[in-house]
Design a protein that fits this description.
By secondary structure, this protein is mainly alpha-helical. The protein contains 19 helices and no strands.
């Protein structure tokens, strides 16, 4: 226990030192939020990957889905790698970097308002960002606190407060520059940790390939063909869509494309990010699938159906050497800290930049904007901690709901805005409202009953993954249809977005 505490304290000290170093380089809101668009390919790629995966993956998704689907969860990992990383960087990276520079946009709401020529769109989008990133952040705190509770014996509330304090300190000091540099450090920790983790979990059973084959057998993947409102494989397919395609519309992920230093840095970033995601996602879901092989439901001190977030922490505590618990803590801590920092940063910018306009209001507004962003960062952390304190038992659904609402709102308007000159403001608004409406209302309307005949609470509804997937796909059809029947966008708005600036080709 003493060794674990010492290692965690050293890890915290490194993060705080990076935050202090970065603080001297923060002069304005652009520095604080996108590091003045001056981040190299390695750091950008690691920042993308570490923001992508958090305690929700290692604890929530890997535990609950691995228990129910066995090694079939590796389909989610494949989607994350191919769609969420490789195609996201290849399709969106260059165009996002170029167009946001032309429009002088550093946030998703700013981009949408400038691209579609309607200032109010920025306020609408900012409100949605702030509201739905809170439960996502709370789900990350919750997963992390469970692990600390299991491995360090720290109380749930104390662990949550500790993580909140660490995140706030280095983020408030150094902004996005501190986040990206710590992300690189945290990414290295994750790579080392997951390689050792897979060896320790799979090695005693004869290796990775036999474990994958055994874990995919019907008796070890009961949820794959489980009865319900629809077959289990439909839920699995929806989760692939939510966690992979959803990345294309998530503000905290798109931010990584804004900040990369040069357009030519995108090519190496594609390779680095894809390899990183393959290693992290593959390892996390593989280890989750191993829970079905290593744990006996009859001997567990908890009900895995009611408390699925405890599956992975318990498996690691009982089936890996005691010394490895330190590294496990660092893996999940590293994954969660980077995600939390990005969530907090994007949420505070939604208020400071998009609603209060601190990038444009008067002399010295940038410095006041940095102060406001720091205050809002602290407020967002506090609200997330309060929500996490309720110890909600549906971490996977909480994350899927947040992703579905945010990606459903922004994905179509963002992607069409990048590539299609004829995308109109009414089309974008219709797509945004359609996605948000499906994600929020579908679980309320489509109620499902449990084995006892009673309605399953909405927050735990098996419809949420399907609703989130539909919220992302349907708006992709709505926007072109509405745009085809509405007034074309103003020529000056389109030209500003699509006409290259001087020197852009050489960038």
């Amino acid at each position: 226990m003493a060794a674990q505490v010492i290692v965690v304290l050293l890890y915290v000290a490194v993060n705080v030192a990076i935050g202090y170093w970065a603080s001297s380089r923060v002069k304005n809101v652009g520095d604080f939020f996108v590091a003045n668009r001056n981040v190299g390919p390695w750091v950008s790629a690691f920042a993308f990957g570490t923001t992508y995966f958090s305690a929700v993956l290692f604890i929530g998704y890997a535990g609950k889905l691995g228990w129910g689907y066995g090694m079939h969860t590796l389909w989610i990992a494949a989607g994350n790698v191919l769609i969420g990383s490789l195609l996201a960087w290849r399709v969106l990276g260059r165009r996002t970097r170029e167009m946001t520079a032309r429009l002088d946009a550093i946030t998703m709401p700013e981009f949408l308002a400038e691209r579609y020529g309607w200032p109010f769109l920025k306020a609408l989008a900012a409100a949605i960002v702030f509201i739905f990133l809170v439960p996502y952040s709370a789900s990350v705190y919750q997963g992390l606190a469970y692990l600390f509770e299991q491995n360090l014996g720290i109380g749930y509330v104390e662990a949550t407060l500790l993580m909140a304090g660490i995140t706030a300190v280095y983020l408030l000091m150094g902004g996005y520059l501190a986040v990206t540099v710590t992300d690189f450090f945290q990414g290295l920790v994750q790579i080392i940790g997951v390689v050792i983790l897979v060896y320790l979990v799979a090695g005693p059973r004869g290796g990775i390939i036999p474990s994958i084959i055994e874990g995919a057998l019907p008796q070890n993947a009961p949820a794959f063909a489980a009865p319900g409102p629809f077959p289990g494989w439909v839920t699995l397919a929806c989760l692939v869509v939510v966690t992979s395609l959803g990345v294309w519309g998530m503000p905290q992920m798109v931010q990584k494309f804004y900040s990369i230093k040069r357009v030519r840095d995108i090519k190496p970033a594609i390779v680095i990010s894809t390899l990183f995601c393959a290693l992290i996602a593959g390892s996390a879901y593989f280890n989750g699938g191993m829970s079905r092989l290593l744990l006996d439901p009859a001997t567990l001190p908890f009900d895995p159906k009611l408390e699925p977030d405890k599956i992975v922490p318990f498996m690691l505590a009982t089936h890996t050497p005691s010394w490895f618990s330190v590294l496990v803590l660092l893996i999940v801590l590293a994954a969660s800290m980077s995600t939390l920092a990005s969530l907090v940063l994007v949420s505070s910018a939604a208020i400071s930049v998009d609603l209060l306009g601190f990038r444009v209001k008067g002399e010295g507004a940038d410095r006041r904007g940095v102060l406001i962003m720091r205050i809002l960062c602290a407020l967002f952390v506090a609200v997330s901690v309060l929500l996490a304190a309720y110890k909600l038992s549906f971490i996977v659904n909480l994350m899927a709901f947040s992703w579905g609402a945010l990606a459903g709102t922004f994905l179509a308007a963002y992607v069409y805005g990048l590539f299609w000159r004829k995308a109109t403001l009414p089309g974008a608004v219709a797509a945004m409202l359609t996605g948000l409406g499906i994600a929020v209302l579908m679980p309320m309307v489509w109620r499902v009953t449990g084995p006892d005949g009673a309605f399953i609470p909405i927050a735990k509804s098996p419809i949420i993954p399907l609703a989130s997937a539909c919220a992302m796909i349907v708006p992709l059809l709505v926007l072109p249809v509405v745009s085809s029947f509405t007034r074309p966008p103003a020529a000056e708005v389109v030209d500003r977005a699509f006409t290259p600036m001087a020197g852009e080709i050489e960038a």
